[in-house]
């Protein structure tokens, strides 16, 4: 995300808003937990995630968990 923001600067055009909409959708979906590998991770706030399965909370400088 930071790379995208840096590339386009502070002007948020329609393309960027579409990208953010896609990210918002990803944020609503449950993400895979890096600890227990279950898709039980919910985003609590920007950069803060909680796994409902193993109850771990973790902070990431990311808008969503990336798949490796
Ligand atoms: Zn977990």
Structural class: alpha+beta
The overall number of domains is: 1
State the helix count: 2
Order of helices and strands: HHEEE
- CATH topology (level 3) name: N-terminal domain of TfIIb
Give the percentage of residues in beta strands: 15-25%
Oligomer: single chain
Number of beta-strand segments? 3
Overall mean pLDDT? 77
Strand order of the largest sheet: 1-2-3
Give the radius of gyration.
13 Å
Taken from the alpha-carbon principal axes, the silhouette is: elongated
CATH class: Mainly Beta
Pick out the low-confidence regions. none
Give a quick account of the main beta sheet: strands, pairing sense, barrel closure. Answer: 3 strands, antiparallel
CATH architecture: Single Sheet
Proportion of residues in helical segments: 25-40%
First and last CA, distance: 16 Å
Features:
68 residues; alpha+beta; N-terminal domain of TfIIb; three-stranded antiparallel beta sheet; 2 helices; 18% strand; elongated; binds zinc ion
Describe the 3D structure.
- This protein is of the alpha+beta class.
- It has one domain (2-59): N-terminal domain of TfIIb, CATH 2.20.25.30.
- It contains two helices and three strands, in the order ααβββ.
- Strands 1-2-3 form a three-stranded antiparallel beta sheet, with no helix packed on it.
- The mean pLDDT is 77.
- The structure holds zinc ion (ZN).
- Zinc ion binds at residues 33, 35-36, 38, 40, 51, 53-54, 56.
